[in-house]
Amino acid sequence: MTARVEVQVRNLRLSDRIKQHVDERAGRLDHYLPAIEQVDVELAHHASARQVEDRNVAQITVRGKGLILRAEQRASEMLVAFDAGMDSLRKQVEKYKGRHYRGRGSGQSAADVGESIAPVDDTDRLPPPIVRRKRFRVLPMDELEAIEQMSLLGHEEFFVFYNAETSRIAVLYRRRDGSYGLLEPEIG
User: Fold this and answer.
1) For 162-182, how does the pLDDT look when each residue is reduced to its tens digit (9 = 90+)?
2) Using CA atoms, how far apart are residues 149 and 134, in angstroms rounded to an integer?
3) CA 157, CA 29: separation in Å to the nearest integer?
4) Of 8, 36, 94, 165, which is most buried, counting CB atoms within 10 Å of its CB?
């Protein structure tokens, strides 16, 4: 069984060669982790990028039962960016499997791990305007799973999730001291 692959392109003509390459490589991801059901690949070309290495962007999002993994890579050639993204995603899958199939490793609690993380440097800048909007599916999970997903996805600042314990949307964020905070919005 192969994972369902959806390919979207922006500012780029999708050639048969690229489409076939993406379908073959992304469709085999469920070989590494059977829980993978869908792979969304977004290929974009930014002609105005300053660096040649930043012109082609491959963003790969993997969805499955209880997991979301994402990788984004840039390169001068589209297939190089896609292959680098797949390599990055394979590392995330191995990390995910290590946590779920072999346990937590050292047995440290999530609070202890949070204390050992260096604080994030916060500089005084004006916030930039909204330049991109994203829609995404939220999966029910508990707070510990949200911390794990935040780490797996590489989100440094925050993570939005559906809290299965409270049946509400929540925002997990990293505090300046390296610990975690949880926002639970209420309608006023």
Assistant:
1) 999 999 999 999 888 888 999
2) 18
3) 28
4) 36
